[in-house]
Amino acid sequence: LTIAERTDNSAPEANAGSDESYEEASLCQAINYGESYSCAACEDYDFSLSATGSTDADGDWMTYAWSVTSGSATLDDSTSDSPTLTFTGPSATYGSDTVETVEVELTATDCYGDSGTETVTLTFTCTTPEADSGT
């Protein structure tokens, strides 16, 4: 039996999955005989992330680190291979849509300390009815 130390290492390739989007309609209620409207915020929404498509050419064991790099959302476990990212339901304004976008970066690191990164974009759109044109 001969044990040899490996002299080279390939960095892993992170795979954060595909960009995703979700759309929800807000409920609006007329106030003052339709002169103004009150709209409820959209509900919170969970996106399921996955690093399981990440690979290492050497077959090395990997760890994962997720981070929100832009926008506002909460990760339930930033070191899991499959965390959940929660958007707080955006507020709604009658006659316009509220679009919130978050970028999340995945870093996959192998047991030799080499790493690869990839970013995924998640979009939440809270829609409301169109303003009445009066026709």
Provide structural commentary.
With 135 residues, the chain is an all-beta fold. It has strands spanning 20-25, 28-31, 36-39, 45-48, 62-70, 74-75, 84-87, 98-110, 115-127. The radius of gyration is 22 Å and the shape is rod-shaped. The model has no long low-confidence stretch (mean pLDDT 92).
* Percent strand: 35-45%
**How would the global form be characterised?**
rod-shaped
Please list the strands of the largest sheet in the order they lie side by side: 1-9-8-5
Number of helices: 0
Tally the beta strands.
9
Distance from N terminus to C terminus (CA atoms, Å) equals: 87 Å
Task: Present the secondary structure layout.
Elements: E1 20-25, E2 28-31, E3 36-39, E4 45-48, E5 62-70, E6 74-75, E7 84-87, E8 98-110, E9 115-127
Parallel strand pairs: 1-9
Antiparallel strand pairs: 2-3, 4-7, 5-8, 6-7, 8-9
Structure in a nutshell:
The chain is mainly β and 135 residues long. The chain has strands spanning 20-25, 28-31, 36-39, 45-48, 62-70, 74-75, 84-87, 98-110, 115-127. Strand 8 and strand 9 form a beta hairpin.
